[in-house]
């Protein structure tokens, strides 16, 4: 497990400086392209190149089930996890459609759904168990299981790197996982369940109130975890959240930029940041989720979303929707003329 705290790659300061200098010479007023300039400059430093690119993209969707569903925290039955994984593989889910349109590589990783599917194209089977235990009654995972789930994420990042991906997107599927993510936010950011607990799959007011009570009880049961992020992940997280955590850490160690999706993936990033704060350099946030509490969490983490479209689907879909913005940022940086090239007068002073 020593790899969890291994150093992240270091952004290249020379290429950061070159990118800033180029942006200052492009035919536009200074900072006129706002966040698009920041994206291109950051990517140049992360990729150590003059012409950053996010054309080659790996999307890995991690799927698992959650024992906490037994406490009535979801509006959908647990069988939906497996059914949606099948839908991903058949091309009918939002992320399937988006990945195809973006020509991004898509894989689905079974990290622990209750009933495994047969081997098939697009499915990676690397299971840590048949769903987690009920975290209200016991630890969600054993130490061995959390290690297996983290390794599943490690392997996904390694595959992305070996395929020469220029950007990594992680997604998730797991009925009950907003409960696990909310516990992690509350425990590691000292936030209140009453302000962080949302509708998830579509709970009504009474359902949210019950879910809030369950989350409060989970926090009380595992209070001995203190501020130990790995302990909280083990006691109250999910296999897919652990896999995302491992994927983000390994991607940053390999020098692979990361585009976060929404509520669940940001919770995994939170755990990863607690283990390795330098991960922050490698993270881009696609959007602010409509799931209650996400705005508080990303503010606490200092993350700047690219979009706010009232999304709360998960699956990596928000990240896929934001990807064209990153691509356009690179195109503008790489292909716009400088004042000299276009024979346009620059700023007077």
UniProtKB/TrEMBL annotation:
<dbReference type="InterPro" id="IPR023195">
    <property type="entry name" value="Nict_dMeBzImd_PRibTrfase_N"/>
</dbReference>
<keyword id="KW-0328">Glycosyltransferase</keyword>
<dbReference type="InterPro" id="IPR017846">
    <property type="entry name" value="Nict_dMeBzImd_PRibTrfase_bact"/>
</dbReference>
<protein>
    <recommendedName>
        <fullName>Nicotinate-nucleotide--dimethylbenzimidazole phosphoribosyltransferase</fullName>
        <ecNumber>2.4.2.21</ecNumber>
    </recommendedName>
</protein>
<comment type="similarity">
    <text>Belongs to the CobT family.</text>
</comment>
<dbReference type="InterPro" id="IPR036087">
    <property type="entry name" value="Nict_dMeBzImd_PRibTrfase_sf"/>
</dbReference>
<dbReference type="GO" id="GO:0008939">
    <property type="term" value="F:nicotinate-nucleotide-dimethylbenzimidazole phosphoribosyltransferase activity"/>
</dbReference>
<dbReference type="Pfam" id="PF02277">
    <property type="entry name" value="DBI_PRT"/>
</dbReference>
<keyword id="KW-0169">Cobalamin biosynthesis</keyword>
<comment type="function">
    <text>Catalyzes the synthesis of alpha-ribazole-5'-phosphate from nicotinate mononucleotide (NAMN) and 5,6-dimethylbenzimidazole (DMB).</text>
</comment>
<keyword id="KW-0808">Transferase</keyword>
<dbReference type="GO" id="GO:0009236">
    <property type="term" value="P:cobalamin biosynthetic process"/>
</dbReference>
<comment type="pathway">
    <text>Nucleoside biosynthesis; alpha-ribazole biosynthesis; alpha-ribazole from 5,6-dimethylbenzimidazole: step 1/2.</text>
</comment>
<dbReference type="InterPro" id="IPR003200">
    <property type="entry name" value="Nict_dMeBzImd_PRibTrfase"/>
</dbReference>
<feature type="active site" description="Proton acceptor">
    <location>
        <position position="315"/>
    </location>
</feature>
